[in-house]
Amino acid sequence: MQVGQTLQAMRRATPLVQCITNYVAMNIAANVLLAAGASPAMVSDAEEAGEFAGFADALTVNIGTLSPPFVAGMRAAIAGAEGAGTPWVLDPVACQATVLRRRVAADLLALKPTIIRANASEILSLAGEASRGQGVDGRDSTASAEGAARRLAQRTGGVVAMTGAVDFVTDGARAVRIAGGSVWMPLNTALGCSLTGLCGAFAAVAAPFEASVAALALFAVAGSRAHGAAEGPGSFAPLFLDALHHVRPEDLDREARIEGLEEVPA
Ligand SMILES: Nc1ncnc2c1ncn2[C@@H]1O[C@H](COP(=O)(O)OP(=O)(O)OP(=O)(O)O)[C@@H](O)[C@H]1O
Ligand SMILES: Cc1ncsc1CCO
Ligand SMILES: [Mg+2]
Asked: Which of 37, 12, 32, 1 is nearest to 223 (CA)?
């Protein structure tokens, strides 16, 4: 898969990505998008979110710090994105945890996100299967949730980009596994939320499956590079931002560890 070419297209476009994300992720996700080559804007209030989504290149919706004003903003923005034919990405943070989260995640899922980016525990929950997630942290392996991810993709018609020690991306028929990254990534809060924003940036320039693979591959390669120079989760964070910025398209093609899986009938 031409992940390098997709990275080059993303950087050339510098896509405007509207991020409705949580209070924890706001700053981290914006820096991740800027370092990678996109243009983030954290615009979430219902009074302007729909208007903004009408001209943004992509929209991302994250339920990490959920409240009624956020939900109103999400609904307005998704309507604006759909009106404009703009791709949108759902990040169902801790959707297994509470009644409110389960309900809002199900409502947003029914609006058919272009891409769902989540950890394995969240994917299992969205697919209606038992999840061991603890709060926002995933506790299930992606290997145990590959079937759930495929079923979810088939049910929604979108792409599922599931992350963990090994990532898994599927559109319900095609699927790949992506290796790499660092054990210090889950010890840095909101990196998954930031990756959701990056999926949006790539979806602005590529089809959802190819966009998801490129975004996850860039994180995996940058994470592996940063790991080699870091001493722990703290020193990893700035090295990871540097790596996101410095990985060139040809580096991504050379270093990405993407395993294509046999296609299953949709
Ligand atoms: N054990 C691991 N080894 C290597 N990379 C990992 C590991 N766990 C997660 N990652 C990587 O970390 C990034 C974020 O994925 P993760 O599954 O932790 O998201 P998340 O649980 O939604 O995070 P958050 O909610 O804190 O934003 C992905 O690029 C993923 O590949
Ligand atoms: C820690 C945390 N709490 C709500 S959202 C969030 C960021 C990681 O998902
Ligand atoms: Mg998450």
From this structure: 32
Going from the N-terminus, what domains does the chain have, and what CATH number goes with each? Answer: 3-260 (3.40.1190.20)
The DSSP element (H or E) to which 178 belongs, if any, is strand 175-179
**Mutation test residue for ligand 1: of 144, 162, 191, 241, the one with most atoms within 8 Å of CB:** 191
State the pLDDT confidence band at 266, using cuts at 50, 70 and 90: low
Task: Return the H-helix or E-strand segment holding 39.
Answer: strand 39-41
Give pTM, 2 decimals: 0.98
Give per-residue pLDDT as tens, 72-118: 999 999 999 999 999 999 999 999 999 999 999 999 999 999 999 99
Alpha helices (H) in the chain, listed in sequence order:
3-13, 26-36, 46-53, 68-84, 99-110, 120-126, 146-156, 191-203, 208-229, 233-246, 249-255
Inform me whether the pLDDT recorded for 265 exceeds 80. Answer: no
**Cα 57 to middle of ligand 2, angstroms:** 25
